[in-house]
Amino acid sequence: MDIGSAVGRENGLTDEKLAALADYETSPHLNDLERLVTRYAVEMTRTPVRVPDELFDELRARFSERQMVELTSAIAWENYRARFDHAFGIESEGFSEGAFCPLPETEG
Fold first, then answer.
1. Which of 9, 30, 57, 62 is 20 to 30 A from 40, comparing alpha carbons?
2. b/e for 58-87, b at 16 or more Cβ within 10 A?
């Protein structure tokens, strides 16, 4: 989330929206489309990946095929990067130092 929240902030993402990710299904800071995309990202991040057909169909109703490929690629890339960094013990580089940067919940 370090570099991701920094890049997001540069593109207009607010700390309120970053904080809303922890409760994205009910947060008043996210709109319906943002909730839908976040739900997709959550399902793509699970192991194993199991995106419900209803969710995918709802996304396809809102995005073109090209947009779906781009969205799915972006989520897959972030999953790759996060898993790679985790395996190598790569920590935050301070891109969001002094700013709100939510950390993912960990099990255990």
1. 9
2. ebeeebeeeeeeebbeebeebbeeeeeeee
